[in-house]
Specification:
The protein is an alpha/beta fold and 138 residues long. Helices cover 16% and strands 36% of the residues. The chain has a single domain, classed as 2,3-Dihydroxybiphenyl 1,2-Dioxygenase, domain 1 (Roll), CATH 3.10.180. The strands form two sheets. A four-stranded mixed β-sheet has the order 1-4-3-2, covered by helices on one side. It starts with 7 loop residues before the first strand and ends in a 10-residue tail after the last strand.
């Protein structure tokens, strides 16, 4: 069984976001369901035992509480952690893609290598090698 907590994000161009996340972080498409206007009604991307769900931003009941980062000046109230085997390799792909790095790659005080970046639509992602599940609780 995979993770029981799954981040859900909305994008103006969900198809482009899916391509970017797969190419740069290594996600695999599990499900992509189109909506009637050519966008994405629902998508599931997996990486290891984790998953992120996403879809196209739309004017529906959730539009008042979930908005793309560009509609709120890029400010985030949370980020998504992506555990990878080689953070330096992912960092290089992200930089080559033109993404904005908001925290340079470095050795983290809690262990592993980590960095943070914005995807093309401004969502902030923390990426690193640290395995929270393998760490002992303090």
């Amino acid at each position: 069984m995979g993770s029981t907590l799954i981040p859900c994000l909305r994008y103006q161009d969900a198809h482009a976001a899916i391509d970017w996340l797969c190419r740069n972080f290594g996600f695999q498409k599990r499900t992509v369901i189109p909506n009637k206007s050519g966008g994405v009604a629902h998508a599931e991307l997996v990486l290891g035992d984790g998953m992120v769900m996403l879809g196209s931003h739309m004017d529906d009941r959730l539009a008042g509480v979930i908005v793309p980062p560009d509609r709120v000046g890029g400010v985030q109230t949370q980020t998504t952690w992506v555990q990878v085997a080689d953070a330096d390799d992912v960092y290089a792909r992200v930089v080559d893609s033109g993404a904005t790095v908001v925290q340079e790659i470095d050795d983290a005080p809690f262990g592993g290598r980590t960095f943070a970046c914005r995807d093309p639509e401004g969502h902030v992602w923390h990426v690193g090698t640290w395995d929270a599940w393998a760490s002992s609780a303090q």
